[in-house]
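Design job #97: recover the sequence.
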């Protein structure tokens, strides 16, 4: 089957990607999701599974984390399937989990177009979408119509016109709405494209927000008992002091884990002509920065809270770097755009090679290895 992988990966890079990259980034993204969504009506996920069959020895990459069993650690990051259109297709490409959203309680159009830019020379993207999404009801309707064939988390955000003082109400409303449906939820306060959203990462604001949210969670838990892991997604642009403050708050709540990181506002050493565009930068130039934050979190938390590493993962090496820095799970977005749908399988195969080289029987043995050497 290795030959089949190589063939489909080459086909993406030589034929499909050049075609896709001739189109406007957002238009082709929407079109691709619509094609995949239509194809799902004809049972396409069964077909994808033939092209992307599970990697041999995958049991060595199986991860149990916050009460869920992940078939492999490579997930899809938030923003790619905002409205939960193609999570089953993405799972059948071999991804271990999918995070839908960010959704907001009410639908909203987001910022003016154009708002996604490809930085080809840097293998990066800049986006300033601004939580464009169809709202919680549309997302839930899809998830109810098409039973999820794996782990599907939901990433929650506030509406643009909800002031920060009332942000908690948006997150409480969303948590209540998705309580029965999500495999896990993520509180997103780290997008750079919703004005002032990142201020919710500050100590007092975060404390107030999580206080309200966990109160709601407790009430829901009493009425409809279930284990719903609640995670927090953070920005890569936090100073050491801000990170310490944030962790002080994190310790006070039963969060299931942290996701590090969202896109960055930094623009270091970019070559592409789109480098000056406003928005969040993702992809290769984000890898070092987001891995440094991940590493700091792991050190401060002493491995007590699972971390999802995201930012600039494009192959097995960049994925393994995150694992050794302290990630239990991984997510990709920009890497998928540049490498194609075979990326999950490629990363899994290469992770196994790294484990063999370093003499680890299982991926969990390598988590945080950088901190032990
Ligand atoms: C076009 C685009 C849209 C995104 N939308 C969201 C979003 O709605 N919510 C969110 O938490 N992160 C969003 N992200 C950030 C990704 O989830 C991820 O954290 C970031 O891109 C870094 O990973 P990458 O380098 O693999 O892309 C978005 C990223 C991109 C490129």
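Job complete. Output follows.
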């Amino acid at each position: 089957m290795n030959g089949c992988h190589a063939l489909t990966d080459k086909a993406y890079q030589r034929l499909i990607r050049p075609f896709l990259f001739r189109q406007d980034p957002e238009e082709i993204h929407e079109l691709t999701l619509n094609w995949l969504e239509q194809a799902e009506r004809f049972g396409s996920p069964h077909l994808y599974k033939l092209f992307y069959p599970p990697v041999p020895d995958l049991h060595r990459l199986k991860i149990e984390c916050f009460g869920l069993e992940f078939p492999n650690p490579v997930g899809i990051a938030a923003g790619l399937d905002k409205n939960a259109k193609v999570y089953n297709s993405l799972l059948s490409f071999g991804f271990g989990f999918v995070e839908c959203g960010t959704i907001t309680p009410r639908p909203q159009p987001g910022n003016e177009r154009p708002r996604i830019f490809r930085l080809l020379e840097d293998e990066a993207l800049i986006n300033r979408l601004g939580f464009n999404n169809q709202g919680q009801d549309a997302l839930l309707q899809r998830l109810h119509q098409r039973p999820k064939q794996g782990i599907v988390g939901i990433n929650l955000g506030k509406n643009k016109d909800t002031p920060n003082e009332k942000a908690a109400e948006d997150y409480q409303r969303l948590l209540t709405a998705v309580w029965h449906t999500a495999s896990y939820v993520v509180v997103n306060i780290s997008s750079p494209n919703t004005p002032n959203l990142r201020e919710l990462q500050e100590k007092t604001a975060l404390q107030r927000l999580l206080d309200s949210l966990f109160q709601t969670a407790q009430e829901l838990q009493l009425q409809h008992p279930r284990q719903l892991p609640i995670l927090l997604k953070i920005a890569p642009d936090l100073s050491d002091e801000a990170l310490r403050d944030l962790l002080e708050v994190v310790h006070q709540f039963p969060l299931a884990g942290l996701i590090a990181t969202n896109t960055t506002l930094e623009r270091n050493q970019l070559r592409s002509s789109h480098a000056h565009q406003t928005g969040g930068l993702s992809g290769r130039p984000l890898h070092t920065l987001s891995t440094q934050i991940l590493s700091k979190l792991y050190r401060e938390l002493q491995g007590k809270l699972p971390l999802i590493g995201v930012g600039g993962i494009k192959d097995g090496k960049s994925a393994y770097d995150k694992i050794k820095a302290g990630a239990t799970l991984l997510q990709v977005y920009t890497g998928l755009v540049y490498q194609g749908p075979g990326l999950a399988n490629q990363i899994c195969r290469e992770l196994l090679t790294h484990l063999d080289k370093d003499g680890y029987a299982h991926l969990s043995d390598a988590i945080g290895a950088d901190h032990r050497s």
